[in-house]
Design goal:
It comes from Vitis vinifera (Grape). The chain has 5 helices and 3 strands, in the order E-E-E-H-H-H-H-H. The protein is α+β, with helices and mostly antiparallel strands.
Length: 136
């Protein structure tokens, strides 16, 4: 027997292909709502959170309880609406492609570039921090 459930995220399983799937059981029923197949466990966990909020409300056990306010709420408790909202939430958290460059490096490059018409002020120089540190 090989365990396929994710060790941290609720409602998430790993397929043999390496992709992650998610489904939730409807309250007071034996049926389940299939939420889809996702490339990462985090995307599947976000989909689970949307469905759990829709079906169980504020008392639902969530994978990312601190970011529940960011999730799209389905218009109804219908399975199709829940599936659509779960897919949208998962896509919103899709990781960026790496193209051979690390994401941190991309972030640093974007922070370094500034347009020519932007005024940059060195706060340490304005408040005399180098002299203050020398005097201490």
């Amino acid at each position: 027997f090989r365990e396929t459930r994710h060790p941290v995220y609720r409602g998430v399983r790993r397929r043999n292909s390496g992709k992650w799937v998610c489904e939730v059981r409807e309250p007071n029923k034996t049926s389940r709502i299939w939420l889809g197949t996702f490339p990462t466990a985090e995307m599947a966990a976000r989909a689970h959170d949307v469905a759990a909020l829709a079906l169980r409300g504020r008392g639902a056990c969530l994978n990312f309880a601190d970011s529940a306010w960011r999730l799209h709420v389905p218009s109804s408790r219908d399975a199709k609406d829940i599936q659509k909202a779960a897919a949208e939430a998962a896509e919103a958290f899709r990781p960026m492609e790496n193209d051979g460059v690390m994401q941190d490096e991309r972030r640093e490059e974007s922070e370094v570039r500034t347009p020519d018409n932007v005024f940059v002020m060195d706060e340490e120089d304005v408040f005399g921090m180098p002299g203050l540190l020398v005097n201490m």
